[in-house]
Amino acid sequence: MANSTDTNIPLTKLSPFKLAKAISDAANGKLNNVTALPNNFILLDYNNADQSEKLQSTQFLDNINVNITPHKSFNFCKGVIRYKDLHMCTEEEIVAELFNQGCRRITIKKNDQIIETSTYVLTFNKLQLPKTINAGYQLLRVEKYIPPPLRCNNYQRYGHHSTKCRISKPTCPRCAGEHKFDNCPQEAFKCANCKDSHVSSSKTCPKWKQEQEIIKLKYDLNITFPEARKKILLKNTSISYGTVAAKTYKTVETQTEPFTFNANISTNIPFTNQNNAPTSTQTPSAALPPPFIHSFIHQGRRLAVGSFLTCLSAYRKR
Questions:
Q1: Residue 276 in contact with residue 226, Cβ under 8 Å?
Q2: How many domains does the chain divide into?
Q3: Within a domain: residue 263?
């Protein structure tokens, strides 16, 4: 992560050409990827440890004083272990014995009481999550940690904590009204996110499921939350071929009407030569009437070829 120490001159406001050249010169080579983040930070994806050391020792980029530090989550990974006999150990002891960066025990709240579980979240100082770890003489399986969606208890929206909420008016998680949960006069449930008949914290909410899918993709691909959200939203809004093929479309066609051909009608029809000049007027004994010709031209797409040839043959025999 790279950012300018001068808030008046953020790196994201510089020319991308100059910034890319300055980063390549500092890393002594081209990086794998460079991404500008919304908080004016620059995410640097290096190729090897040598580039990482050179970037962290860099103090200037294009004559701008910068601070380059490892990312807080991209260079680490979190896993979950479950073992009930670890309740005798403190979190500090688990960290010291397992040589990881952090340990947190999962707790749940039930009947206004905090209950400690036998599930622990471990932070490893490596990119690849180990499949198993040795807890003394026990071999424990390590699962990937997928945190639950972060929902604001004040505004009931996902993606931020209530301590960082910018909305002054609270939203009730029960009825989606502009009041706190303790002052809710309603008995019916209404979600503040999807407007369905359930509380805002329900795991059956489509918004909750979408946020959980975003978080899972973020940790599976080791990408940022904005990138994961963009991929999921693009995936959910795209129309598949099966969806299009299943739809029923109305086709606009020319309506045809049955007609009666009277061979006894005698009509004067002018004949023309190759230059479209009229030659003479002949009166065949049984000529096709102009309405039939007009009907054929106007509705030719709907008239069967066989029917037309039959009528033409009958006309010639007359």
A1: no
A2: 4
A3: no
